[in-house]
């Protein structure tokens, strides 16, 4: 079952859709700000099926999908070759709190410097420029960490800033690729809540392969 934990975020005031409030003294804007929910990160082992079907769908135009869902697998290897694995998911409940940042702040502090870590992320969309920068900085200073990042969609991939951020991820050693239909099925089987007593088979949407090829081509063009 998902658990919620409040995460303090020191940022400029933002509106419900994430835009900066140009005049924080405006009574109307202050009222909007007061009505915002607290910044929260939802954590758990399995996410609701309806969330997966909507948020992970690899559509070209992601209208209404202003959250990030991050499913992770952490494999810790000792010098003797023994591997311990753990998994879970993170969901940002408010647009100003990002799931990628939450992973580094809530999951990674438990890492043992004496172990080697292979972390795999299955993320509903690729990171924004700020989160990409955080990933790059973390990889550069954490020599016992390798990251495989699989994304359902490319976030604002036409923006030069985003393209540059994705190239920096590659340069930092992050393995970045678009989720194939088989990857969506893996997430469905391992991270999505199933009906009690039964395991429902993954039902791919009609254009899942077509959209995968579309994003794969865009990512290849960006990274070359």
UniProtKB/TrEMBL annotation:
CDD domains: cytidine_deaminase. Its EC number is 3.5.4.36. It catalyses: cytidine(6666) in apoB mRNA + H2O + H(+) = uridine(6666) in apoB mRNA + NH4(+). InterPro entries: APOBEC_Cyt_Deaminase, CMP_dCMP_dom, Cytidine_deaminase-like. Keywords: Hydrolase, Metal-binding, mRNA processing, Zinc. Its cofactor is Zn(2+). It comes from Phocoena sinus (Vaquita). GO terms for biological process: cytidine to uridine editing; mRNA modification; mRNA processing; positive regulation of gene expression via chromosomal CpG island demethylation. One of its GO terms (molecular function) is RNA binding. This is mRNA(cytosine(6666)) deaminase. GO terms for cellular component: cytoplasm; nucleus. Gene3D superfamilies: Cytidine Deaminase, domain 2 (3.40.140.10). Coiled coil: none annotated. Probable C to U editing enzyme whose physiological substrate is not yet known. Does not display detectable apoB mRNA editing. Has a low intrinsic cytidine deaminase activity. May play a role in the epigenetic regulation of gene expression through the process of active DNA demethylation. Signal peptide: none annotated. Pfam families: APOBEC2. Belongs to the cytidine and deoxycytidylate deaminase family. Residues 64-169 form the CMP/dCMP-type deaminase domain. Residues 1-29 are annotated as: Disordered. Homotetramer.
